[in-house]
Model the fold of this input.
Amino acid sequence: MRAPEYFAVDMLFDLEEERVSLFIRDHSGEKVAIQTPPGLKHYWEEICDLCRRHGVMPVFFESNFGACDLADRRARLAGCSALIHYGHSDMGLRSEIPVLYVEARAKGIDVSGLERLLDIPEGARVGIFSTVQYIDYLQELSAIVRKLGGIPLIGRHGWRTRYDGQVLGCDLRSAISIASDCDFLVYLGTGRFHPLGVAAAVNREVLCLNPHVPSVKRIRPGEFLKRRMARIAESADAARWCVVTSIKLGQFRLGLAERICEYIRSHGRKAVLVVADVITPEMLEDFDPDAAVSVACPRIPIDDQDRFSFPVLTPPELRLVFEKEGAYVFDEVQPEDFKFSELN
Done:
């Protein structure tokens, strides 16, 4: 029997109330943990109503930066017997309690309006990619590309993603793997970070199609690379380095962080290893560093650099400080970064 619909019918994203209801009935005790990203937190009343109708108390946890930021340990300490994680796909992390991933895919979008925004020469090869929220629409976008005379290409998913064509801030493989075979790269979705990461990783333009308000923007890597190279140059004389990783299960790149400390010391500089939960300027400023390396989420040096009073680099950027030459490499999380097994 289909579960009652407790969520607003005009909701832009599918919060899968039927799956959630079945999961609560099968796995939950008195309390169930809830993680929602910022864009879904305002649906807390609907989520609470659904949980309470099944006789369980929902407990919300403050951060949800990605599937890497799993609150299973905190949830268990709070007495929750299961966790519902909204907004991301399962990246295969082991967990201490049962977890349901609700991907919150976009629904009710008509992508036909995007056709008029694309100018594709006959026979052009078009690589397309997106986040999990819009992954259902990649085949429709492929049909539009074919209608316009182009050849759509969708790359195979990486080790942290589940679907072909899907990208994460830390796993851009599906886009990078086809970039050299494409005349155009097209991102379907909203926001700048994911297409900017691809643009920087392959050093070429990405067309960004917004499916909600049909529009197109071009993201070029030039200005981004200029800013990052300036941060690298600022770090050239840094003597005191903080190397920081996050205790968040999917970001705890401790093996790589330890190797980076040794690498910095081998160049005659001082390095301290810092393990944090959320990496903030205030926490690192207490160490009074000249520069830092973030060995956690690749977004921190990119999105948050202006919050820090000193350069914060990615591991590949650090190499350019000491080796002085080579192509810019965008930071992607790799299995060998981890010292312990975080995977199921």
Q: What stands out?
A: Confidence is low (pLDDT under 50) at residues 1-10. Residues 111-220 form a domain with the Rossmann fold fold (CATH 3.40.50.11850). The longest strand covers residues 240-246. The chain has three domains: 13-104, 111-220, 224-337.
